[in-house]
Design goal:
This protein has helices spanning 20-29, 71-76, 79-94, 120-128, 139-144, 153-157, 162-171, 184-199, 217-225, 264-269, 296-310, 330-342, 355-358, 365-379, and strands at residues 5-14, 34-36, 55-57, 107-113, 177-180, 205-211, 255-263, 276-285, 317-321, 350-352, 381-382, 398-399, 405-406, 412-418, 423-430. By secondary structure, the chain is α/β, with parallel strands linked by helices.
Length: 437
Amino acid sequence: MRDRVVVTGVGAVSALGNDPRSQWKALLRGASGVAPLHDLAENLTLHDDADRPLAAGRVRGIDPREWITDRKAARAMRLHTHMAFAATGQALAAAALDRDTIDADATGITLGVTMIDYDIADLELAARRSMDGTGGFDVDRFCGSGWRSISPMVSIVMLNNATLCQIAMQYGLHGPNASFSPFGEAGGQAIGAALRMLQEGEAEVMLAGGVSPRLNLSALQRILYLGIVATTTDPAAVSCRPFDRDRTGTVPGEGAAMLVLETLTHAKARGAHILAEVLGHGAALGAPDREPYPPRRAIERSFAAALDDAAVTPDRLACVYADAPGLPSGDSIEATAISAVLGTHAGTVPVTSTKGATGHPLAAALPLQSVFAVHTLTEHYVPPVANLLNPELDSDLDLVRGDPRQVQNGDTVACLAAGFQGQSECVVFGAYEAKVA
């Protein structure tokens, strides 16, 4: 018989704040951490005459010395790794675990990581030393000596599993591990994989979460290329408007979130404070070349599969955290898919989304929602959808707007996430007390 899996610690950083509690309070207020995007990681200034006005949810004030013991390694790390360490340190502290109390062989880590990009500074010196007499780029000079000006650390910090490895090394983790990429589906895959590893007895404790990249020129270009960025960003704080009739797109968001998951047997044996239970996971893949993004059937299948895996019927849901990044067509498609799965309960199960407050943290999206879902189960409130003023006319969902909603019914929460290539993920959490004999 599979062991049950519980959550004993959470940690998160986002544009709303650098710890779960401050973010939760801001979310309940309907606040937004999205602000005008004036500069990037390369210290590039974005001018007002850019192709379009830009906004983003930035993470600021992370001090790596607070979380990373290897000072030399910390200096070589990028912001995304600093964010992941902060979320991990918070989650382990909340779970009353540290390097001295962790069973290294029975503890693993799974992490969703968005694609890591070069900064201009990584290549600038090499480019300068490869110039010819006219100021042009000389390939022969670059191949002969210019390339030597590229730090060997660049290739290491850009690996998608580098952050996972750094965390595992600091805490001495020897258990199962896996990294997933690149977009909104990655964090859900990380949590789903950790759930299965624990259920199958491969580990007793798993760190599971996700991290976005820091916003640099390459990352910004990629999200602009996808054609999903809001075209109306004045004022910036209301740029992202999930489920609103006036939405024009999403905005990038930096962030990281981590959950400490344990088998119930292990958590009880060490006297851990249990926050919630992970009840189920579902995943599906659509056909983006034949269906509009996001594929409705993929969302329906992942949502239904997660409920089935959790043995939960829609009437037990206290709320749904929708992916809803504010896309003109995407939010409508997702609303229809959620409604189809909820059936007759579509008008009674509260539905919310957090991207209007945080921006879209890509691989960190579902783990961050999961942290908020745990708060919903422990504090019995559902946060409102930030910036939702004019709800979708053709949606029969009970969208939470204005003020936070106190949970009236249900003891489970579903969290949805979608990638940009047709993937869909769903994780179902439950109130632990609801299943205590």
